[in-house]
Write a structure and sequence with these properties.
Chain lengths: ~350, ~250
């Protein structure tokens, strides 16, 4: 007769016994945890929800002991769009919607292998978005100094991520190149930009870059910041990707060579797909850091979400609601970063990173 | 093709790894359609020798001519030779992120510029020949070692090479899987393929090889028909080697 494995002990009681009360020290920790929950959760809930004020449209509606979310409600358009003219905000909405239109087709495998689909996303979309957001050619112009809020955060974060990946791949490949000049240039580039504080990069982009440009050429301040952030992000990403490249066995490259594939095809078809999926967690880590670092553009006079919130908090008419403002900003940042984290775990599962690894480890 | 035409010609080939002299004045002439088994103790340079044929290793002195084309640093020339030379590795080196079918169609599509449908038909033909067509949509990680190595052979054949290199194709396999791979290699030999095999499978050498090349310390010590080589090795070193691997 076939022998069955011993039955698992199940049920909440058995679970609690095994996980919470398995010894005097664990019992102590469990009690401490419960006490902390009791001490923290009710007051927070009370402040944020139960005693909070949600409705209204002026400061007079605030009062009471809880949070006054009216502050966020009143400033919401500003938090989202900065000082973008109200009549033109549809362009921002349309631009964000268009990103989905360009990105969604890549969920299909056949299209993912299509160069044009990627070219549309990485080349056509940025140009289209720039025209939509900035204007010209039939649309009223909106100077980048009026861009702000979550919109600006997304523009800075999105373009730095979009630039970081290709630039990082090229730099990582360059650093492992057999050509001494390519290798040296890549290494120096990476080590220089990685070793400089992000804030310094932004200052350099904003103050020093114009000095190197020919006179008469006036690059937009935002564009200069984007270039600075992209270079910085690329250097960081390069080292993450290099880690992945080192994880691909040498035999894989030899097999690709032996089949007669050219260098770029060896990389594109064999090495990079394996290297990138090895370092998805690292890539997402850089992406999340980049997203949060967008706040640094404040120091060169651009108002991202946090900048706009800070401006609203210090508005004399609305003094005293800083906590609500910062909690809101934190929540929005957290939602985006956690979203990226969830997406990356889904991607990892789908690409089946642990293929062949023992199931118990999962 | 002329029977006497050279598929591969080594002329006084030398190579060093750092200070280590791994190939010393190697001369070897492989006729088209000839089946060569290369054996010798580990570190004798046999893998390095066949890896010089498709430039996975670069020789430093002498000439290597493959299908009438001399190997130089010219990238285009190297890629041209690699298109005509298939290789099978000890550890299979299938691409784990691609299915068996995609492994087989990758090079025909991206190197030969073949249409996908045509490449897939060709791949299925070779997968049938190595008796594994039912695994076309599996991933390499789901196959046994023997199955993986047969797919690796099919992948190389899909480029319809003129020469096949085998670098210890059965050394990493469990004993019960060696035969299925050798059977495929024997069939391939019967089809008239030019083959250079580094292997310790002396039964295989006896059955299919036109010549056995015995190497030691970077030189070709003996090259003879298997009958002669196994019965009457000329050198003391070869006798010793044979007694060691056939002795039990």
């Amino acid at each position: 007769m076939e022998r069955m494995p011993p039955p698992n002990r199940i049920g909440p009681l058995a679970w609690a016994r095994a996980n919470l009360l398995s010894g005097p020290f664990n019992i102590l920790l469990t009690l401490l945890g419960l006490w902390l929950l009791w001490a923290i959760v009710p007051p927070v809930l009370e402040w944020a929800l139960l005693k909070a004020q949600f409705l209204g449209d002026s400061r007079d509606d605030c009062g009471g002991e809880g949070a006054c979310w009216v502050f966020v409600r009143v400033h919401l358009p500003q938090f989202l769009y900065g000082f973008y003219p109200e009549a033109e905000r549809w362009r921002v909405n349309l631009g964000v919607a268009l990103l989905a239109v360009f990105a969604v087709p890549l969920a299909w495998r056949r299209l993912r292998e299509n160069v044009w689909a990627w070219a549309a996303l990485f080349l056509a979309y940025p140009l289209l978005a720039w025209w939509l957001f900035h204007g010209g050619l039939g649309l009223p112009e909106v100077d980048t100094s009026r861009w702000g809020g979550l919109f600006l955060t997304l523009v800075v974060a999105g373009s730095s991520m979009a630039a970081a990946l290709p630039l990082g791949i090229l730099l990582a490949l360059g650093r492992r190149s057999e050509l001494p000049v390519v290798k040296a240039v890549s290494t120096v580039f990476i080590e220089f930009w990685r070793g400089v504080p992000h804030i310094t990069v932004l200052f350099m982009a904003s103050v020093m870059l114009p000095l190197f440009l020919p006179s008469g050429v006036d690059l937009d301040k935002l564009l200069r910041a984007l270039i600075g952030v992209a270079i910085f992000a690329g250097a960081y990403m390069a080292e993450v990707i290099r880690g992945g490249l080192q994880g691909v066995p040498a035999g894989q490259l030899e097999a690709a060579k032996a089949l007669g594939l050219s260098y770029w095809r060896q990389m594109r078809l064999v090495v990079l797909p394996q290297a990138l999926r090895l370092v998805i967690p690292g890539i997402v880590n850089v992406f999340i850091a980049l997203f949060k670092d967008t706040s640094l553009v404040l120091i060169i006079g651009l108002f991202d979400l946090l900048g706009v919130v800070q401006a609203a908090v210090t508005n004399p008419q609305w003094l005293g609601y800083a906590i609500e403002g910062y909690v809101f900003a934190a929540l929005v940042f957290w939602l985006f970063c956690y979203g990226m984290s969830v997406l990356s775990r889904r991607l990892e599962r789908r690409l089946n990173v642990g293929r062949g690894a023992p199931q118990e480890l999962a | 093709m002329n029977e006497n035409q050279a598929a591969v010609r080594f002329e006084r080939v030398n190579k060093w790894f750092g200070q280590l002299h791994v190939l010393r004045d190697v001369n070897l002439f492989v006729r088209a359609g000839e089946r060569i088994v290369i054996c010798g103790p580990s570190g004798s340079g046999k893998s390095t020798l066949i890896r010089c044929v498709n430039r996975l290793e670069k020789h430093q002195q002498g000439r290597v001519v493959v299908n009438g084309v001399e190997l130089t640093d010219d990238r285009k020339r190297i890629e041209r030779i690699r298109r005509e030379v298939g290789m099978v590795f000890q550890h299979f080196e299938l691409f784990p992120h691609l299915t068996v079918l995609e492994n087989c169609t990758l090079a025909p599509i991206h190197v030969r510029g073949m249409a996908r449908a045509e490449a897939e038909a060709l791949a299925m033909e070779y997968l049938s020949r190595v008796r594994i067509p039912d695994k076309a949509n599996s991933y390499p990680g789901q196959l046994s070692g023997g199955q993986q190595q047969r797919v690796a052979i099919a992948r190389a054949l899909c480029m319809q090479p003129k020469i096949m290199l085998f670098d210890e194709p059965t050394s990493a396999l469990d004993p019960e899987m060696i035969k299925e791979v050798l059977d495929v290699m024997v069939e391939l030999a019967a089809s008239g393929m030019t083959m250079l095999c580094v292997t310790h499978e002396m039964g295989f050498a006896r059955e299919v090889a036109d010549r056995v090349v015995f190497m030691d310390q970077g030189t070709i010590v003996e090259a003879a028909e298997p009958e002669l080589f196994f019965k009457a090795p000329q050198t003391e070193r070869a006798k010793q080697f044979l007694s060691q691997i056939l002795g039990h």
